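Objective 1b of the project was to move from sequence-level analysis to a structural picture of ligand recognition. The entry below was assembled by the postdoctoral researcher (A.K.) and checked by the PI before modelling. It contains the amino acid sequence of the target and the SMILES of the bound compound, zinc ion.
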Amino acid sequence: MKNLLIRNVTLDGDVCDILINGNRIERIASGIQTPAGYVIDGTGKAAVPPFYNTHTHAAMTLLRGYADDMELFRWLNDYIWPAEGRLTGEDIYAGTRLALLEMIRTGTVFFNDMYWYQPDVIRAVEEMGVRAAIGLLYISGNDGEVLERNSRCNAELIDWNGGDSGRIQLTHAPHAVYSVSEKVLRQVARDAEREGRIIHIHAAETAREVEECIQAHGRSPVAYLDELGILGPRTVLAHAVHLSDEDIAIIRERGAYISHCPCSNFKLASGQFRYRKAVEEGGCRFTLGTDGCASNNNLSMLEEMKFAALSAKNESASPTAGRDGDIFRAATRTGAEAFGIDGGVIAEGRLADLLLVDLNNPLLVPDYNLTANLVYSADSSCIDTVICDGRILMENHHVPGEAEILEEARRVCAKIARFHEGSSV
Ligand SMILES: [Zn+2]
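Corresponding predicted holo structure:
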């Protein structure tokens, strides 16, 4: 890997140079003289940390706009699950590449994924240069055992070490308390502990999930997962909307991370995350995720930050809740920290993950407070360049191979549209 030098870039309000050596930031200073293999002119641009998306189902980009504005069970039973059931590994590869193109364009360099055909997802990640946590997916059948389709994919990956890039890790991803049996959840807790892997699970997403869990197990999803040994500092709870005060105390004590997904929660009318109680008062570790494109309908962490801030203010009836700096930190450094990634901060010695944003974009003018501009004003047109692990993934808004990725995704989506025309719903 060659040296990369970014000249005359604004960092925390000062103009400096940033020297990247391999996949690390080597030096930040003005007037760096070290010869570099490649130089980027950072004039008129600011370097900021990129985004780490802690909950998504990347290939669901294929279902963007496929079925909207309907009740959850009709949406799942008549549209989403039948379509997903007919997707092939090649389709998932095309959908993941579309997702990665969108992530790069919107400044995201890492995603925590839970989906089918993981080897095809990994192939896309390796090629496009981002980071990822890929879930070994667990869904139980009526007999309480893991579905054969899951076991087959998981078996292919279980001994895989994440590959040579160092950008990919495997997690255990049991889907949720209502779709995975107690026996499987206990086994996942033991395996994750032994292997030191992260557990990624949907938890307390809807009121119905909480009610049914209390009926079936006598406790809330969070208390139930805690009893099974699932909760710890290497656990990521997606959504966590319906939390009791006791649930919040358990999450804090165990050091588990919440992946807050405000756009999906609002779109599916799942409910209002208790930001003030869980984060500002409760001190729970807090990150942001977009969820999949069927319920968002995009993967923009810029939008997710704005919704998170507005959701916090609305929930607490106070404009002082969900402050820009706290929300930005959740989307960047805390997301990286949750997955043991030494990035999310632009500093010497850290991983070379960063964005260059265009300070001449009208959405970033005036520049009283860049963090406030990024949380409340920016859209993807502000993002000029994306660097992940020392490699340039986008420069001057250009991502290599974009036209081919779009064409392939359109081809797969035309097939999905035909599934629906041919079905009885
Ligand atoms: Zn989800």
